[in-house]
């Protein structure tokens, strides 16, 4: 009987912990140290660039198309720790995620404001850097042979998913030169080359565009593009 009651108590405690969906900054900070955790910033790109949590991914919750496209690249079976500026957007985003199959979503009470007040550190505070010019880009792609442009960002979930695919592609195809365009900074260049989403891949042969794809691309598709 004693063992039964103890097991019931432990089970209830575990269930309560699992149901705890909103935590303070100190608890949140400890939580994101666990292996396999996904940290998700649902503020705007501009807010993100003023400082964010370590290793965070980003999607603007107020831009429904962007949010819905990027959130699909998160793993629904692994915990997601979500935050915004003060808690409103992250609460709405977390509710949507739970309703759409995410098994464990934890919100930061008070958002970044509470995080700062607790003395927790931010990373990625962007110093304004010059954008890549169209002339610089044109010079990079105007060469004999193959050039692959990768328009992406480290905080973009599908871009993050593409990293190992690109690494393998480049290892297997050493004749291809990679040109990276910063999707969080080189906005004028993105307009010039008509890159409307992240990631966007553009393949050039002898300076001429021969193939383009927006979104996640399989290694097989990248390799087949070289046959053009």
Automatic annotation (TrEMBL):
<dbReference type="InterPro" id="IPR001763">
    <property type="entry name" value="Rhodanese-like_dom"/>
</dbReference>
<dbReference type="InterPro" id="IPR013766">
    <property type="entry name" value="Thioredoxin_domain"/>
</dbReference>
<dbReference type="InterPro" id="IPR036873">
    <property type="entry name" value="Rhodanese-like_dom_sf"/>
</dbReference>
<feature type="domain" description="Thioredoxin">
    <location>
        <begin position="123"/>
        <end position="228"/>
    </location>
</feature>
<feature type="signal peptide">
    <location>
        <begin position="1"/>
        <end position="17"/>
    </location>
</feature>
<dbReference type="InterPro" id="IPR036249">
    <property type="entry name" value="Thioredoxin-like_sf"/>
</dbReference>
<dbReference type="Pfam" id="PF00581">
    <property type="entry name" value="Rhodanese"/>
</dbReference>
<dbReference type="Pfam" id="PF00085">
    <property type="entry name" value="Thioredoxin"/>
</dbReference>
<feature type="domain" description="Rhodanese">
    <location>
        <begin position="33"/>
        <end position="124"/>
    </location>
</feature>
<protein>
    <submittedName>
        <fullName>Thioredoxin domain-containing protein</fullName>
    </submittedName>
</protein>
<dbReference type="InterPro" id="IPR052367">
    <property type="entry name" value="Thiosulfate_ST/Rhodanese-like"/>
</dbReference>
<keyword id="KW-0732">Signal</keyword>
């Amino acid at each position: 009987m004693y063992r039964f009651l103890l097991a019931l108590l432990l089970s209830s405690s575990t269930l309560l912990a699992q149901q705890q969906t909103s935590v303070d900054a100190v608890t949140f900070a400890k939580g994101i140290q666990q292996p396999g955790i996904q940290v998700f910033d649902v503020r705007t790109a501009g807010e993100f660039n003023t400082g964010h949590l370590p290793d965070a991914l980003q999607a603007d919750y107020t831009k429904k198309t962007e949010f819905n496209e990027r959130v699909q690249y998160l793993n629904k079976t692994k915990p997601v720790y979500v935050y915004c500026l003060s808690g409103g957007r992250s609460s709405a985003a977390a509710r949507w995620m739970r309703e759409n199959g995410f098994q464990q979503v934890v919100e930061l009470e008070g958002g970044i404001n509470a995080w700062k007040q607790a003395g927790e550190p931010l990373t990625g505070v962007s110093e304004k850097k010059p954008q890549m010019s169209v002339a610089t880009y044109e010079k990079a792609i105007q060469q004999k042979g193959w050039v692959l442009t990768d328009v992406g960002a480290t905080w973009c979930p599908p871009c993050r998913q593409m990293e190992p695919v690109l690494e393998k592609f480049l290892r297997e195809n050493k004749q291809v030169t990679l040109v990276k365009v910063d999707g969080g900074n080189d906005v004028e260049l993105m307009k010039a080359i008509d890159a409307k989403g992240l990631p966007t891949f553009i393949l050039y042969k002898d300076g001429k565009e021969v193939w383009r794809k927006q979104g996640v691309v399989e290694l097989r598709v990248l390799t087949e593009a070289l046959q053009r």
